[in-house]
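Quick one before lunch.
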Amino acid sequence: MEFRNVDEIASWRMCLGCGACAYACRQGNIRLVDIIRDGIRPAVGSGCDGCGDCVQVCPGLDTSHKEWPENALRELSRGWGPVQEVWEGHAADPEIRFAGSSGGAATALALYSVERLGMHGALHSGADLDEPWRNKTVFSRTRDELIKRSGSRYSPASPCDGLASIEAAPSPSVFIGKPCDVAALRKAGEKRPALKANTGLALSIFCAGTPSTLGTLELLKKLNLSAGEIKALRYRGMGWPGMWNAALKNGKEVKLSYMEAWGFLQKYRPLRCYLCPDGTGEFADVSCGDPWYREAGETEPGLSMVVARTGLGKKAISSAMDAGYLKLKRIDPALLARSQANLLSKRSAIWGRLAAMRIFGIPVPRLSGFSLFRNWLGLSISEKTRSFAGTARRVITRGYYARARRVSQIEGETGKYQPPERGHP
Ligand SMILES: Cc1cc2nc3c(=O)[nH]c(=O)nc-3n(C[C@H](O)[C@H](O)[C@H](O)COP(=O)(O)OP(=O)(O)OC[C@H]3O[C@@H](n4cnc5c(N)ncnc54)[C@H](O)[C@@H]3O)c2cc1C
Ligand code: SF4
Ligand code: SF4
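Model of the iron/sulfur cluster complex:
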């Protein structure tokens, strides 16, 4: 199917909310709207001339590997994309280590790039201070700003809507985002050479899916809290894995364990995240996740798994260690799979899910270079059946065979959402 603009892509539920289309539209004709039960989605204005710039940068429609670094480990490529080295450790700065989501590696690498490599700053995401249950795209230039915006936020964020700030910066800058955000950065860089030239380092965090804003609002409701009572909201960090922590305007705090909070929020992940094969930032220079191969205690000081994916990433890791920003040790690359088994299960189910959707004539994303069929072949017969039949059933029961209403039609209703159906497609 040919798409005239991203409005059509979003109406087929392929948008993953990166924000790159808003950057790519030269007429400034695309607004991003937080559709509370889905995620951040584009609303295209009536002046669209169908130039296709937004479609060309959209990772929701097409995320494909075109280049493969020569030194990538062959044994990991099928499940994890290009991997050159796997490390474990943490930010050397104890404050960053503690505040960070895992061991603060992403923040430490960004700070090193700014303080020692002369990069202008880091484009990434942080809490919206006016509505702390939502996120905002931010450009951090100091240690203090980077620390304030550290920590995973299990709610929609669209850092690529700020790519113009990288393009316009007087020197290269760092980008930090989810795997789909980094895929969008790379596509946008192909279209805009000035962006590509000014992208100093691309960092990804691992991602199993972004819960919608409704997830956070429903969690607050379950705890008898209203959004208006919240002064600040962290989803984790301040230790590893850290606590979900709502600081209230009356000075009190309400906390949940990481497992309680993620266990609730993950049910609010949209369809597109279940069709996403890249959970570990395969298009980044460096990606950071949790070394879940062993159980974390309640309050450990913080540990990151750090994956070097490109030559630039390898160099950034070793020079950040030499300069005293990171403390890491090389680990057996097989620990990546042991740490993120859920991401491999999801990737393996995707070929069956897409096949079921194709039978109904539903447009699906193009995803090449992820060995989807070979991964699916590795499933048991019952898992294969489930991936196909479960999706077919949901296509019917949830009406995925038809286009969803356009963002501009839904926008006015954001106050009256019904909880979405739960569970994966
Ligand atoms: C939606 C989501 C799903 C995740 N799923 C997994 C998973 O499956 N496996 C796993 O190991 N870890 C997962 N994580 C956690 C994250 O990958 C790790 O904590 C990672 O190690 C980063 O830790 P750090 O201490 O290096 O990062 P920090 O130093 O704390 O920095 C985190 C960076 O991420 C950015 N960021 C935070 N939230 C978002 C967001 N929603 N969108 C874009 N950028 C954001 C911040 O701006 C900050 O720059 C998930 C995180 C999110 C937000
Ligand atoms: S995936 Fe990104 S580029 Fe594509 S429509 Fe959604 S926000 Fe726009
Ligand atoms: S699961 Fe994939 S598509 Fe969904 S937010 Fe994470 S990286 Fe993006």
